[in-house]
Specification:
By secondary structure, the protein is of the alpha/beta class. About 40% of the residues lie in helices and about 25% in strands. Strands 7-8-9-4-10-11 form a six-stranded mixed beta sheet, with helices on both faces. Strands 1, 2, 3, 5 and 6 form a five-stranded antiparallel beta sheet that branches.
């Protein structure tokens, strides 16, 4: 049996009439990267704030590192590290000074703090910039510094809330390399929220999909993809409603047919073999295919299968820009 280091019990948070997190239950195992996947506004940040004792639940509770977040919040805080969405390092201080300030907040002796700060800055490749003011750092450098700062107390669990928000693809990949290193070399448990589907797919050991405050599915990326059970053929035709009826009668090898947003999604056992038969049946009935694609299961397909819609990319991108601008304003104030 794997050790459970986080356990939520009907964890709920209500703001007025808004149920931000709705009676969620899940477990996180020792030493795993647990991805908390969902669009902006799904309840990810509210959940992480409750687990780290920043917000008090409206109902339910959680056990983190053996401590109840309501009954024993001080011990929870002492045993975790947190990197929030927004930049928190003091930009008027150097990277080194930020590390030492964080160590002081945890009451770590100065000589021990110096050794840890040196080791951590080397790990995130910031030794060369240790004596520079944080105001001169790029977004990726700031995020790496804050990961190092969160590790100064040697926590058992590290909470990362959208750690790659607003970063370019290359920097995002670099941040994930550091996250993987924490797991592999230090055996640390990483709880990470994200709305980047490909990140969750590539790096998480297990994933919980949350949307509108509810947990919809939990499992490894492979387990979640296996739920689809085959390839996905996506079609756009000159008459989608009639096309669905025709495709539904082509029963051999077709697992499911439905309309999702502006396209027909067909779940099949072997997409490349089945596509010609589907096209032939449609053409015989005078229906022309204007767009077609065949894909193996991806996390995007998993999300659509579970929620009935795609991840709200446009909304996510817009909110991401606003959040990034807000972060920069606060960092400069």
């Amino acid at each position: 049996m794997r050790e459970v280091v986080i356990k939520t019990i009907n964890l709920t948070k209500v703001f007025g009439r808004l149920v931000a997190v709705d009676h969620i239950n899940f477990e996180v195992y020792d030493g795993e990267i647990f991805g908390f996947l969902g669009p902006n506004g799904a309840g990810k940040t509210t959940t992480i704030k409750m687990l780290t004792t920043v917000l008090r639940p409206t109902e339910g509770t959680a056990i983190v590192n053996g401590y109840d977040i309501i009954k024993d919040p001080a011990h929870v805080r002492q045993s975790i590290g947190v990197v929030p969405q927004e930049y928190t390092a003091d930009e008027d201080l150097t990277g080194w000074d930020n590390m030492m300030m964080m160590a002081g907040l945890y009451g770590i002796p100065k000589d021990v703090a110096k050794e840890r700060a040196k080791e951590l800055l080397e790990m995130v490749e910031l030794t060369h910039a240790a004596n520079r003011k944080v105001s001169t750092y790029s977004g990726g450098m700031r995020r790496r510094l804050e990961i190092a700062m969160s590790l100064i107390s040697r926590p058992k669990i590290l909470f990362l809330d959208e750690p790659t928000l607003g970063l370019d693809a290359q920097t995002r990949a670099a941040i994930w390399n550091y996250i993987k290193k924490l797991k592999e070399e230090y055996g640390m448990t990483i709880f990470v929220t994200t709305h980047y589907l490909e990140e969750a797919d590539m790096y998480a050991d297990r994933i919980a999909i949350i949307d509108r405050g509810k947990i919809l599915a939990i499992g490894s990326p492979k387990e979640l993809k296996d739920r689809i059970g085959g390839d996905i053929i996506s079609l756009k035709t000159t008459n989608d409603d009639e096309a669905i009826k025709i495709i539904s009668n082509v029963t051999d090898g077709i697992l499911d047919v439905k309309k999702v947003e502006d396209e027909i999604r067909i779940k099949v056992k072997n997409g490349e073999e089945k596509a010609p038969a589907i096209l032939e049946a449609l053409l015989k009935n005078g229906i022309r295919v204007t767009r077609m694609s065949i894909t193996e299961p991806t996390m995007d397909e998993v999300y659509m299968e579970i929620t009935g819609r795609r991840m709200r990319d446009e909304e996510g991108s817009r909110e991401e820009v606003f959040a990034f601008r807000r972060t920069l304003r606060r960092a400069r104030s």
